[in-house]
Specification:
Elements: H1 3-7, H2 12-31, H3 40-57, E1 79-81, E2 91-92, H4 95-102, E3 107-113, E4 116-123, E5 126-132, E6 138-140, H5 143-146, E7 162-169, H6 172-180, H7 192-200, H8 205-210, E8 214-223, H9 232-241, E9 249-252, H10 257-266, E10 275-282, H11 285-290, E11 301-304, E12 311-322, E13 328-339, E14 342-348, H12 352-358, E15 365-371, E16 375-381, E17 401-406, E18 409-414, H13 420-431, H14 443-451, H15 468-472, H16 479-492, E19 494-495, H17 497-503, H18 511-520, H19 525-530, H20 533-537, H21 544-554, H22 557-567, E20 571-572, E21 588-591, H23 601-610, E22 614-616, E23 625-627, H24 636-644, E24 648-649, H25 651-657
Parallel strand pairs: 2-11, 19-20, 21-22, 21-23, 23-24
Antiparallel strand pairs: 1-6, 3-9, 3-10, 4-5, 4-7, 7-8, 10-11, 12-13, 12-15, 13-14, 15-16, 17-18
Helix pairs in contact: 2-3, 13-14, 17-18
Length: 664
């Protein structure tokens, strides 16, 4: 039964039964199937309606989602019962209610992370077990996968039994990287939470490792014989001392909690880890424990969810945006509205399934909001005309389209392999800074060159001088622009195999993987071309899916003909790969702020990696140094570094400390 049908039910008991069934179905899809049948906003609204009906009628069904937490795991991973139930938190959207909830006691306010909750158990200082939340009573054992999370310590100083809870998460940046690397035609993941859930529950932990899953602790269950002086914050400090990344939190009182919520709110857009609200926990452990729990909620903490600001508007158009993978993504265009302090007039609709679910039609009245106060989304279609026609031709090339099923969602694909949109996106990647780094070839310029027939394959970029007169006479060009472009192209003729591999747009091959492959095959493209899937899989960090895709790519005669043509135009320079005795071996750096001696962060990152170091996007207990020319800044990363005792160094001080020279 659909939402609209349920809302027409007059009898409260019948409506309650229908709501419970719909929410159970949505919960099963979300927790066990990594899919979303409705937005978080819609789920919360219907859940609140169910609670109201239960209170009104006095009827609570045994299968009501208000009485259960999550759903049974459905994968073939081993199952295990939790020592104590993992309850969900009661919630509020009223900031003032948080002050009342504290009842005069101090509290701790922290991000409510949007990932997958995990319980870790350590004995004798070693990671013994990792279990997912599952249904709150029974979870899935994912110990092997947890061992390859980007930041989980496998050994800690504390030698007695330690049990803690935290959230497995994937950052927005890593989420975008994974979606960009998906095989041609495969539907992108809808959000980082879905991607994280699937990554954590893999049967092959090499896939988990490739996804850069991180673990952020948010509570201590038990630490044998440890005394924390009745302080929740002391527990969090203890976990930091053991090497865990701990959720960002601040101390609050009834007088300061509302202001603290506002400060968190201002940083939502810059927060690199997905969050769907805040958690307020009582600082005094004994007081929190004395409150006990209900059948569903513990009473020592409460969740705060942002009251999403909604606006009503009119859908004016659906733009169909083609990508280099062939996916044609629908984007809603509507009359501009003000949301969370900004003007919004566009929102991604993601795929055909959501178009159908919302029953969209041009001219429909819709409500829109910003999911987690960041991403514009359609909340509801008030008209529900369902008159939107799904295009049977590609908006770019006019070729045929087809609807395909990917990740349980319907997506629209262009089936024309010569579609200019595919070529435009492929060429855009090829010339980008991390790839061949050819300045002067914006997407707009590439589109003009493709339209005039100057470019058919990548090697054609290095033969653009054949069209000198036509380019000089093009709008926006001239002699100077042409010469600058030619100089940039000439510089790009000298590159490395690492950059080349990334620039080709091979599915699953980013900058780091390109470097990994170049190192494994000693910079020899011919050796790469002859390698089997088994040889690729033998490389550390290369999983079986990527290995198979690489072997398939290098066995494709058409792609190899294009590569041969490209290699005839460029020179591959040798690369140096640092060993264990390198200057930065074992160093993990985080770069923030503006740079003075390097062209950009990628240039500094390349130097660090060439000398055996690693670069991370966030400061954690694993961070060796934070590079920031503004050492006195009050930025979040500076504050975090100071909390963890991580040194903050300028570019010059960093290079001097490790004996590296400034760039010329």
């Amino acid at each position: 039964m659909e939402i609209r049908e349920i809302e027409t039910i007059a009898d409260p008991k019948d409506k309650l039964i229908a709501l419970a069934g719909l929410l159970n179905e949505a919960g099963r899809a979300y927790y066990a199937g990594d899919q979303e049948l409705m937005s978080n906003l819609e789920y919360d609204r219907l859940y609140d309606e169910l609670v109201r009906l239960e209170q009104e009628t006095g009827i609570v069904l045994s299968n009501s989602p208000t009485q259960r937490v999550g759903y049974e795991a459905v994968s073939s991973l081993p199952k295990e019962r939790h020592a104590s139930p993992m309850l969900s938190l009661d919630k509020t959207k009223d900031r003032e209610e948080l002050a009342n909830w504290l009842s005069g006691h101090p509290g701790v306010l922290s991000w409510k992370l949007d990932g997958l909750t995990i319980v870790l158990t350590y004995r004798n200082g070693l990671l013994e077990k990792a279990v997912t939340r599952g249904n709150g009573e029974i979870g899935e054992v994912i110990t092997n996968n947890a061992r390859v999370f980007a930041n989980v310590p496998v050994s800690i100083p504390f030698r007695k039994e330690l049990v803690l809870r935290g959230e497995a998460v994937i950052s927005y940046a890593d989420f975008e990287k994974v979606n960009a690397s998906l095989p041609e035609g495969e539907a992108p993941y809808k959000n980082p939470r879905n991607l994280c859930s699937g990554s954590v529950r893999q049967l092959d932990n090499r896939v988990t490792k490739e996804r850069n899953v991180r673990f952020i602790a948010f509570s201590l269950v038990s630490a044998e014989d440890a005394d924390f002086g009745d302080s929740f914050l002391a527990q969090m400090d203890f976990l930091r001392e053991q090497g865990f990344a701990v959720v960002e939190s601040v101390s609050v009182t009834p007088e300061t909690v509302v202001g603290a919520v506002g400060e968190f709110e201002q940083r939502i857009s810059s927060n690199e880890i997905p969050s769907d609200g805040l958690v307020l926990t009582l600082e005094e452990l004994s007081y929190g424990a004395s409150l006990g729990r209900t059948a569903k909620f513990p009473r020592n903490a409460i969740a705060f969810k942002w009251a999403d600001e909604q606006a009503e508007t009119v859908l004016r158009d659906i733009e169909w945006s083609a990508s280099r993978t062939g996916l044609i993504n629908p984007v809603a265009v509507f009359d501009p509205v003000e949301l969370e302090g900004t003007t919004v007039k566009r929102a991604s609709v993601h795929n055909i399934s959501i178009v159908k679910e919302l029953k969209l039609g041009i001219g429909d009245r819709i409500t829109v909001y910003k999911a987690n106060m960041i991403i514009p989304q359609i909340a509801e279609n008030l008209t529900g005309s369902g008159k939107l026609a799904i295009p049977d031709t590609c908006p770019v090339c006019g070729g045929k389209t087809r609807i395909a099923k990917e990740n349980d969602s319907e997506v629209l694909l262009c089936v024309n392999p010569e579609c200019p949109a595919k070529k435009l996106k492929a060429f855009s990647l090829f010339v980008s800074r991390g790839a061949m780094n050819i300045e002067g070839l914006s997407e707009q310029t590439l589109e003009k060159f493709l339209g005039r027939g100057f470019l058919h394959r990548f090697g054609d970029i290095f033969r653009l001088s054949a069209y000198r007169q036509e380019i000089v006479e093009m709008e926006g060009f001239g002699e100077l622009s042409y010469e600058n472009l030619m100089n940039s192209i000439e510089r790009a003729r000298h590159t490395t195999l690492s950059r080349l591999l990334f620039s080709l747009g091979i599915s699953g091959v980013g900058q780091a993987t390109g470097r990994l492959l170049s190192q494994a095959f000693r910079g020899d493209p011919e050796a790469l071309r002859q390698a089997s899937a088994e040889e690729f899989a033998a490389i550390d960090q290369i999983g079986p899916v990527l290995a198979s895709g690489l072997a398939e790519y290098f066995a494709d005669d058409g792609k190899m003909e294009e590569l041969e043509d490209l290699l005839s135009e460029i020179t591959l320079d040798p690369e140096s790969f640092a060993g264990e005795d390198a200057a930065l071996s074992g160093v993990t750096a985080v770069i923030t702020g503006s740079l003075q001696h390097f062209e950009n962060r990628d240039a500094l990152k390349a130097l660090i990696e060439e000398n055996g170091g690693k670069v991370s996007g966030s400061v954690s207990a694993k961070t060796t140094v934070l590079i920031n020319n503004d050492i006195t800044s009050n930025s979040g990363k500076n504050k975090k570094a100071k909390e963890l005792g991580v040194p903050i160094l300028s570019e010059e001080d960093f290079l001097a400390r490790y004996g590296l020279a400034l760039p010329e």
